[in-house]
Amino acid sequence: MAKSWFVYLVRAANGALYCGISDDPRRRFAQHCAGRGARFFRSSPAQALVHVEACADKGAALRRERAIKRLGKAAKERLLDPTAIIQRVDGPSSATAPSMGGAALEG
Question: pLDDT by residue (tens digit) across 17-47?
Fold first, then answer.
C-alpha cells in the first residue's frame, strides 16, 4: 500500500501561513512547534495547524504545495474553513480537517 501524503498549512503567531508537505501532518506540526524543521518559524512560532489536504502521492503533494505557495495571502485564506482548527500549540482540537478533496485526520 502506498504511503499517504498531505499538504498542510500552519498559522504562525504573526498571522502568516506556512505551507508544507508531510506523510504525518500532526507530527510535522509538533516538530514546527518544537523549533525543529522550517526556518520560517524562527521569527514567529507556529500556532495552529489550520488546513490539511490528502494527495495521491508525494509528487502530487509537491505539485499542490507549489501551487499553494504561488497564491497570495488572500487566496490562501480562502482555502481555510474558518470554523476548523485541526490542532493548536496546546493540543488537538475537536474539529476535523477542512475538505478540498482531502481527508480528515484522525487521532
Answer: 999 999 999 999 999 999 888 889 999 999 9
**Domain extent at residue 40:** 5-92
> Which pTM does this prediction carry?
0.79
Q: Is position 64 within any domain?
A: yes
Q: How far apart are CA 50 and CA 84, in angstroms?
A: 7
- Confidence at residue 103, expressed as pLDDT on a 0 to 100 scale: 41
pLDDT tops 50 at residue 82? yes
Quickly tell me which residue has 526556518 as its cell.
39
Domain count for the chain: 1
- Show contacts of 80-88: CB within 8 Å, 24+ apart: 80/9, 80/50, 80/51, 81/51, 84/50, 85/48, 85/49, 85/50, 86/25, 86/26, 86/48, 86/49, 86/50, 86/51, 86/52, 87/26, 87/29, 87/48, 87/49, 88/47, 88/48, 88/49
